[in-house]
Write a structure and sequence with these properties.
The chain has 262 residues and is of the alpha/beta class. It has helices spanning 61-65, 68-77, 108-123, 140-151, 178-184, 191-197, 216-228, 244-260; strands at 10-15, 18-24, 31-37, 48-52, 85-89, 133-138, 156-162, 205-210, 234-238.
Length: 262
């Protein structure tokens, strides 16, 4: 354990090329977990991609269920992507999902937008003050990435959502106690409203969804709203449903989008 300026303690260990951290978040008030994949080699100002998981999952989901680190390694080895670090935090583990929103008793948004980047800068000398940070997520994580990415362009150079929840009421289809989530959050947010409120300072962003996904209609509606508002973005429709097979296959598109911003 180490005393840090941002976190009282940092507990960490590594396994199979992925380093795991447990820290006590001031924003949340509880211990939270983060998994990190760093490509082999020596780097300065390494780009960082923060990946947000969906409901029911945690920090292990992207690596164990989508093997995203293996996809990245393969692309780096082939010269198709530059070296990047993957940071996969827990959402804070509120019931079935926190929605990455500020709650009355815990700020899950601040954990992602401020504390996770600070943890990575403090723990990895390869990540410097000018390292670009990117934000992406799936489902609930897409809802988080699109909102938080829009709010904090000074933190995130670009952002992306996969199969994203696009408005708060869609959580009712995923969580066991929707009323508890509604009561816990300070404000129910729609993705379009947040992007529109921040349209004068937006970082580049994109989102995609499977054509057979239950959330596809909401993603298409978001695309149409953004077009009508003349807000620059990229939207893609791929084959697939709301499954890990879809996210495993299509996360490379997001990583390539981020690489183009470097």
């Amino acid at each position: 354990m180490m005393n840090m300026k941002t976190f009282f303690t940092v507990e960490n260990g590594s396994n199979n090329g992925i380093e795991h951290f447990t820290v006590k978040s001031k924003a949340i008030g509880n211990r939270v977990d983060v998994s990190v994949y760093k490509p082999a080699g020596e780097f300065e100002n390494l780009p960082v991609v923060i990946l947000l998981h969906g409901v029911y999952g945690s920090h292990w989901a992207w690596s164990l269920k989508a093997e995203v680190h293996l996809t990245l390694k393969q692309k780096i080895d082939k010269g198709e992507l530059p070296p990047m670090m993957l940071v996969m935090p827990s959402d804070g583990l509120f019931q079935d999902g926190s929605a990455y929103l500020p709650h009355h008793t815990a700020n899950y948004e601040k954990w992602i937008s401020h504390e996770v980047p600070e943890l990575i800068k403090e723990q990895f000398q390869e990540v410097g003050e000018i390292s670009p940070f990117f934000l992406a997520g799936l489902s609930m994580g897409g809802y988080g990435a699109l909102r938080i990415g829009a709010k904090y362009p000074e933190v995130f150079k670009a952002f992306s959502g996969l199969s994203s929840i696009t408005f708060f009421d869609e959580f009712e289809h995923f969580v066991e106690d929707f009323d508890a989530l509604k009561a816990a959050v300070i404000k129910e947010e729609k993705v379009f409203d947040i992007i529109d409120e921040n349209k004068r300072k937006l970082a580049p962003f994109r989102f995609d969804c499977g054509s057979k996904d239950t959330l596809y209609g909401g993603n298409v509606s978001l695309h149409e709203q953004l077009k009508e508002a003349k807000i620059a973005h990229e939207f893609y429709t791929y084959e697939g449903e709301h499954t890990w097979e879809y996210w495993k296959e299509n996360i490379a598109e997001t990583l390539q989008f981020f690489a183009k911003q470097l």
